[in-house]
Amino acid sequence: MEAKTPSSNFIKNIVTEDLASGKVREVVTRFPPEPNGYLHIGHAKSICLNFELADEFKGRTNLRFDDTNPVKEDTEYVESIKEDVKWLGFEWDGLFFASDYFGEMYERALVLIRKGLAFVDDQTADQIRETRGTLTAPGQESPYRNRSVEENLALFQAMREGKFADGERVLRAKIDMASPNVNLRDPILYRVVHAHHHNTGDEWCIYPMYAFAHPLEDAIEGVTHSICTLEFEDQRPFYDWVVRECEMKWVPHQYEFARLNLTNTVMSKRKLKQLVDEKAVDGWDDPRMPTISGLRRKGYTPEAIRAFCREIGVAKSYGIVDERMLEHFIREDLKLKALRTMAVLQPLKVVITNYPEGQTEWLEAENNSENPEMGNREIPFSRVIYIERDDFMDNPPPKYFRLFPGNEVRLKHAYFIKCEEAIQDADGNVIELRCTYDPETKSGSGFTGRKVKGTIHWVDASHAVPAQFRLYEPLIADNSDEEGESFLDRLNPNSLEVLEGFVEPGMKDSSGGDKFQFFRHGYFNVDPKDSAPGHPVFNRIVSLKSSFEV
Ligand code: ATP
Ligand code: MG
């Protein structure tokens, strides 16, 4: 799956041309997250795109934290982002912070002021917004727009020295209030924010706006192809204006692609943070979260995520990807790798009345029926076993081939057993089955005497390891996207189901991140946080089958 040649896309074509024409000598890309939350699967698409593009052309990729908004940013996020990028399998060339360049950005703002291309505005943010005009009507020029260069220099310095409170002054570009592109109507370059910054501490009380900072960062780092999502398309003229008017030596270019959207999935850090803050989930790495850390904890592998990102490709127009496609890739990745074992999620005790008391035999079981190289293991079998509660029915409907009184089934890797009697408690619940087994029918013995229609899984009771199983459904019940404010009201109350059951003894000491295919149940991952010695917790990654094929 990994070996698949990366398919072509429009950005790759641009890079190929730029190298051929000599416009660039080396490809330099960057992944520029804002450290205000954990990365999600949408970011994975951007990470794969940037790193794989540079890799393919033997170029470089920087990891750059776009930390220009001190109020929302935190080192916890910085660390998690680094971990996630590494885990996905990528190595950055340079590790940078936008805040490393605050000094240079300030100097570049001075260049603009001296050229008469920036001015300090006394208007409030609301006033500035209200006078911006609309798509059809031009905006109004600020009454402070024609201040002298000297006055602007002095005021900007005063902003920097902390002489103004938050919101009292801003530095604005002086471009064109009548521009059809609203982003060119004297956009704000700097604002006053008296806040502690995770990297620069209290050194600054003015911070550059993202749209001003980003092109400067790219130019400073010598980025050749600055790839971002489509929302920034209308920002491109301002991006180019900043690079040009700030007289940056290196001229980077911005290219836009469509962001990833997945069905049934909230994909915005702001909303994911809300889920965490309101404790609707167990942190950023809750396996129900579409975060990289959540997917990792659920049991996704970097290989599966990379293959998924490659498959969805890079488009110029919006679409919504079926989440089953992501599931397809983890099944593909684990199919031949995961040990295939048995787990009983909702146990029902079965006594095999004709099996000798006190005897245990060890049966041969293949580890992966599709990959013989994984060899065999031995599993115990004795008089008392557990089967799945819903593999028995007292009054089964037609075509029910599992256990019911008088019926015979095959126990995977073991024998045929026949249900003789169901024992009920005072309330009429079945609490135990009495069965008999036929020693002639041992798995692998070549028995052909008769056939049974059902094969069920089981775990030997005296050797069984108690385990917890966590089954997931989408966090958001319906299939609507993230429009509308009430997404917290649409949470699926059944997104997590917790069951206590048993696994085979060989899985007793499995450690966090180990992955298994449980016969008939799907793929599971050992939860790295909540598993205890002798009591593993298994997160279901995905069930066995899907109707979806790519
Ligand atoms: P969110 O809206 O989820 O908070 P963001 O765009 O604000 O995401 P950033 O930290 O600014 O998050 O994003 C870092 C990079 O990841 C940007 O280049 C951005 O374009 C890209 N990115 C973010 N979300 C997606 C997505 N859903 N699909 C593809 N790329 C994305
Ligand atoms: Mg952002």
Automatic annotation (TrEMBL):
A motif ('HIGH' region) lies at residues 33-43. It is found in: Cytoplasm. The keyword Ubl conjugation does not apply. It holds the Pfam family tRNA-synt_1c. Residues 26-334 form the Glutamyl/glutaminyl-tRNA synthetase class Ib catalytic domain. Residues 455-527 form the tRNA synthetases class I (E and Q) anti-codon binding domain. CDD domains: GlnRS_core. It is an enzyme of class 6 (ligase). One of its GO terms (molecular function) is ligase activity. L-glutamine binds at D66, Y210. ATP binds at residues 34-36, 40-46, 229, 259-260, 267-269. A motif ('KMSKS' region) lies at residues 266-270. Its EC number is 6.1.1.18. Residues 338-438 form the Glutamyl/glutaminyl-tRNA synthetase class Ib anti-codon binding domain. The keyword Manganese does not apply. Gene3D superfamilies: Glutamyl-trna Synthetase, Domain 2 (1.10.1160.10), Glutamyl-tRNA Synthetase, Domain 3 (3.90.800.10), HUPs (3.40.50.620), Ribosomal Protein L25, Chain P (2.40.240.10). Coiled coil: none annotated. InterPro entries: aa-tRNA-synth_I_CS (IPR001412), Gln-tRNA-synth (IPR004514), Gln/Glu-tRNA_Ligase (IPR050132), Gln_tRNA_ligase_bac (IPR022861), Glu/Gln-tRNA-synth (IPR000924), Glu/Gln-tRNA-synth_Ib_cat-dom (IPR020058), Glu/Gln-tRNA-synth_Ib_codon-bd (IPR020059), Glu_tRNA_lig_a-bdl (IPR020061). This is Glutamine--tRNA ligase. It comes from Cohnella silvisoli.
